[in-house]
């Protein structure tokens, strides 16, 4: 590579990282906050006002994913037809309007319906955002770009939990209960940012006004060259074959364990913290509960960044995924026997760090053996199974809590699923069906990103 081209490449990637990634990460931040806002509302008045049992709360949390799953593939097809910029903006405004309606939810049935419709409205956003970012950078830069994007997920709780606590404290605003004010406060940004996205985002480097002509030429050329090389050089697995591929289903099961742990914590951690008063006699106001909820996720953001950086340097190895799954699976049940609020949160922090350390590296694995349309179908299948875990985590955790009277059994189930993910990852590697030590930047974590039309 000549020096001039190197300078253009660096400036182009830097501009994408500065101008595009933070905005898409902000969209993801609001997305994750809106889908998990119910976890803050539940223990802070909503469960009491709507007379919800733990199982009903769990079902309301999880039914979101049923709507999401049903519309995920049609939404992704629409994204290709209408363009990522327009479709992502449309998704965001739609879910913002639905989120706003939670302000006036009046019954458990109404709650179920709105959570289902919220899933329908949000369908396709996460894979759409991943695909959108993949259309902007060649694969050797993609793992770094996606790691920056993924940071939005743990940071949502770091910032969002205290924010939710502050909003809930505004009890009486417009005559609303605090938890209703919180729903109002987190819904409006989705509508506003969604409208801005329509004008701010560009569908491809060629349409970006903030790139120079040289940067546009380099990015467009690099992506086109990569597309042709991949199409000509890889043996494509058919889409139909994907659904009978044992490796894809094994990866789906591994991902299920991670997402089960992620959402079991996401939906029930505020409730567990609210229970500290009864267990340990500790008293916290709403803001303090929000701050405590945020504690595990800040170290998780650091773990995500540095673990992914190590994987990029060494090459993604089996232990980059299996080891965090093992640590997370062992730590989450131990949190129940920690003996104090501080020790409980410390152990849960280890669990959160484990989940977020593994997730970005996990997504480099499917494209070691899938390309083109098969990669798109395989990753869609894996993501769909993960969304089933989101539903299961909410419903099963609440149901087992009602059945047993405590969170002991539900958290052992979470640990069991994560341990299973670790075992399956090792088994998959030892079977020789997944390459080990491939540099992360040489892979395409977005699946068929550079095969799709902008």
TrEMBL record:
Record-linked SUPFAM superfamilies: MFS general substrate transporter (SSF103473)
Entry's localization field: Cell membrane
Domain Major facilitator superfamily (MFS) profile: 20-433
Protein name per its UniProtKB record: Putative tartrate transporter
TM annotation in the entry: 50-71, 87-106, 112-136, 148-169, 181-201, 248-274, 286-307, 319-337, 343-363, 375-396, 408-428
Alphabetic keyword roster: Membrane, Transmembrane, Transmembrane helix, Transport
Membrane topology: Multi-pass membrane protein
Stated role: Component of the tartrate utilization system and may allow entry of tartrate and tartrate dehydrogenase.
Organism: Pseudarthrobacter psychrotolerans
Major subcellular site: membrane
InterPro entries listed in its UniProt record: MFS (IPR011701), MFS_dom (IPR020846), MFS_trans_sf (IPR036259)
